[in-house]
Amino acid sequence: MAPRTLFEKVWENHVIDSPLDLPLIFIDLHLIHDVTSPQAFSLLRDQGRTVRRPDLTFASADHNVPTTDRNLEFKDLLAKKQVEALISNCKEFDITAYDLDHPDNGIVHIIGPELGLTTPGKTIVCGDSHTSTHGAFGAFAFGIGSSEITHVLATQTLPQVKPKTMNIQIEGDMPEGVSSKDIILSIIGEIGTDGGVGHVVEFTGNAVKNMSMDERMTICNMVLEAGARSGMVAPDEKTIAYLKNRQFVPKGQKWDEAVREWSKLYSDPNAVYDKTITINIGELAPQVTWGTNPGQVTSIDDYIPSPGSFTDSETKATAEAALYYMDLKPLTKMNEIDIDRVFIGSCTNSRIEDLRLAAQVAHGHKVNKSITSLVVPGSYHIKRRAEKEGLDKVFIEAGFEWREPGCSMCPGMNPDIANPGDRVASTSNRNFEGRQGKGVRTHLVSPAMAAAAAITGRLTDIRGWNYIGEVKKNETIS
Ligand SMILES: CC(C)[C@H](C(=O)O)[C@@H](O)C(=O)O
Ligand code: SF4
């Protein structure tokens, strides 16, 4: 048999023979949330259909939920209705739903892995672009639209164009102060927001081998912002250690069988990718975005570029428009930009290791008086774990707000929005115009950089940070 890539193996395991023009693939796991599913269920009902595999469908309320008191008001009537619709639809069709107060509730892309629903080799879909996160476990995981959600609900299959493959090989040791968030931001900066279009990206190389599962999830989460269909990492001993004994993973002999199957999931030595790029991170500095898409990014010790320095007219015009919206001048030093708010959270950076890093930076310091800072764990599991480690106390003592889980300030769909004109240092994945509220300006950074910015009141180089004491760190598994 010809050598195959990881993606090709997973793909071939799921294609069902079909008379359709497009290959039809079986879907192993369907995750649903409050924003995109209500419409899909209405369509399902209109078509007189039912849910084919409720046992493979799981729901969590995440986008619209309030993160202060769960009983408080929703942002608007639509938000409230969407959460209510999610829960009643799940009741009607017998789907497991993690409602606002459920101990397993959290952002769908956070709870999938932590409950052991996400496992290597699965096909995973969700009506959400950042479904790519689950690819960190060697699954083929991708976002779908409303009519596709209906199709999966009704049939547990999906017609799909076979994507191309791209290998992003990341080599070198992670420099001090640099995280996987900085790596993926710099990759998007290099290949552009359309650099991955039509491709499933497999991350390979020694830097990826050395990453924890939390770190791998961050790069797979954000590869979507380079236009890729999804991201993947071949499962290894870290993947297996992470998953062992999680709620939904196979147990006993079935676990051993699963591990044997998972160990076949890697790209064969001579497998051919449609595209390969190699990146060395040995000299990488912490990254921060200056514009209104994640590709408009530079190092914290650099300057805002002058639009005139871009050769093609479209990039130049986009940079000019971005700087106008961001109210920034070319050649300003990145570390001299004052901020108003900090958000540590989202499916990119709200896992236990992210919170530990941020707490380590915050420990013994005080949040700058002019700054409002939120720390929002990605799930109740993470929240409980962080509290057990005392991270909540570190944050609260420093002056951060410690919230209930949810998407929070990432999408501007719940009460956590900033004021017009506010400048936010945010660990989320999108810095689009108006994303965190009308007229709000977003700078994407790592959790450590966000915590440092909260304390100094400006974008800050985490290298050389004054660490006061050590925050207790446990094993890497959340
Ligand atoms: C609401 C949902 C459709 C959306 C997405 O697909 O990504 C959201 O999660 C986001 O991050 O913008
Ligand atoms: S945290 Fe943000 S990016 Fe992730 S699913 Fe929620 S809204 Fe989308």
Structural description of this entry:
With 478 residues, the chain is of the alpha/beta class. It folds into three domains: 6-161 and 237-259, Aconitase, domain 3 (2-Layer Sandwich), CATH 3.30.499; 164-235 and 266-280, Aconitase, Domain 2 (3-Layer(aba) Sandwich); 289-456, 2-Layer Sandwich (Aconitase, domain 3), CATH 3.30.499. 31% of the residues lie in helices and 16% in strands. The protein contains 15 helices and 19 strands. It has helices spanning 6-12, 37-46, 77-93, 108-114, 146-155, 180-191, 206-209, 213-223, 237-243, 253-262, 313-326, 352-362, 380-388, 391-398, 447-456, and strands at 15-16, 24-26, 29-33, 57-60, 96-98, 123-126, 140-143, 157-159, 164-171, 199-204, 230-232, 275-280, 287-289, 297-299, 341-344, 372-375, 401-402, 423-426, 441-444. It has a five-stranded parallel sheet with strand order 5-4-3-6-7, sandwiched between helices. A five-stranded parallel sheet has the order 17-16-15-18-19, with helices on one face. Helix 6 (180-191) links the parallel strand 9 (164-171) and strand 10. The protein starts with 5 loop residues before the first helix and ends in a 22-residue tail after the last helix. The mean pLDDT is 96. Bound molecules: 3-isopropylmalic acid and iron/sulfur cluster (SF4). Belongs to the aconitase/IPM isomerase family. LeuC type 1 subfamily. Catalyzes the isomerization between 2-isopropylmalate and 3-isopropylmalate, via the formation of 2-isopropylmaleate. Its cofactor is [4Fe-4S] cluster.
